[in-house]
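Lecture notes, structural biology module. Today: joint structure prediction for complexes of two components.
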Amino acid sequence: MCRRAITLLILFAGMGFSAHALAVAPNLGPSPPATQAQVAALTQAIHDAQTSGDNAWVLVSAALVLMMTAPGLVLFYGGLVRRKNILGTMMQSFAMMGLITVLWAVVGYSLAFGAGNGFIGGLEHAFLRDVGLAPNPNYGGTIPEQSFMIYQLMFAIITPALITGAFAERVKFSSMAVFLSLWSLVVYCPMAHMIWGVGGVLNVTGGHWPVFDFAGGTVVHITSGVSALVCALYLGKRVGYPLEDMPPHSMVLSFIGAGMLWVGWFGFNAGSALNAGPLATSAFVNTQFAAAAAAITWVITEWIQNRKPTALGAISGAVAGLATITQASGFVQPMSALAIGGVAGVVCCFMVFRVKKFFGYDDSLDAFGVHGVGGTMGALLTGLFAAGSINAVFGKDAAGKPIAAGAIDGNWHQVYNQAVGMGIGWALAIVGTLVLLFLVDKSMGLRVSATDEAAGLDLSQHGEEGYDLNA
Amino acid sequence: MLKIEAIIQPAKLDIVKEALIEAGIEGITILEARGHGRQKGHTEFYRGREYTVDLLPKVKLEIVVADALKEKVVQAILGAARTGHIGDGKIFISPITDAIRIRNDERGESAI
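The predicted structure, tokenised, for the full assembly:
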């Protein structure tokens, strides 16, 4: 017994020694000087390894963001409408997956990320000309440009889909499709270009007003949320609102959808690092923290107000937290994310409960109250909480210390920059949406007839029913 | 013959049905119904909006029995469906003039 143990020990020691010997072997003998070719090959190998790591994460993120639209948003919104409108509501978001994809390939990507001027990209990448598998140093230099292009497409899809929450249950499918397609070109592409496009006036590196927008708080949530408010005001209320009860027909569907939104949001925020490095981790952590804090504060707020912690409150709070942290996700400390989420839950709850009732507009599914308000708050809070130690966005000084990013670092001017970005986002969304709504309304009419509205969009627009209980 | 209609809480359906079968009934018809009595409805909250739901889900039983079975059946329903709270439901009894079994023309009490 004892002898066997000693034999084993010797065996292990021998193995350890030989492994060690192998590892240090090249240093023992005279090694030939590395040739330039070898160095080049190694550099290439390192580069390839980074590309495959980064590309894997960005492609998974792209798929996650698409999942946010369908089935995430589709179920979330679908459950909140009445039974007769579920297919109509789902189709509005799903249509974006088709329409915006085609538009993006033809001209959208070029308008958003082409060179162009400070406000909109050029047409040099129309039909994806010169958008290949080689990385573009301006847009995530380690991944193929087509990965960047397809990832950004998923953002372009979900943004107009979010607006559909404002005109739920009363808009014509044809007019909705035309309006949101035009909206993507007139509002979304310029906004994305100004903030993320090279040469954009709000671009964080080199823009006139450098705006921190990590994953689209301004580009996605302010534009969609504010446009949603304009749509709700322009279209008017649903027939019977607010006298007639219009409760959600399936909280279960909304719950599943909200869960998918939360999960998908990791792709939305952490994927926006465009690599699989530490910044992605930071955004991932912040996303989780803000969503959790907002879900809790929304529920507590309504618990005090209405004596019940509702399921819809919990999921609405989470989405509000996610919309609010989007802009800050890659710039702030985890504790700041908790604070941002906590504020988001209370403020968005107040907007939805009180302000909407006070002004009497019918933002049916609260696209403005959650996304518009969350995005606006997120824009300003990012300026407040952005930390150079998380993201040295302005570079480092001579001593190697990150230059102050937000007010928390002492750079109060950033709050002003954020406010300018927010203001431009609001202005573009209001003007663009109003003009397009007017044009579409005058040419093809926006609303369904009162009879069609009473029958529901499923039957009147699509000739189908979501739930055929006799089949 | 009598028709006994009982409107009860949906959750009580199974034990009421068992009690009725023990009491000796042959057949039963069950309808899913919505309505309210003195209970009125309840309120629901969705994003701060209050909705009054005044038609609540109920189950309606219809049983046709021989006159002799009346008290036994009524006691079975009372015993099984009662919680003592508002909203327990009601029982209505009405006379039936005839019953016919479609399969073979049987009539009267033997048809039920």
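Point to remember: The longest helix of chain B spans residues 70-81.
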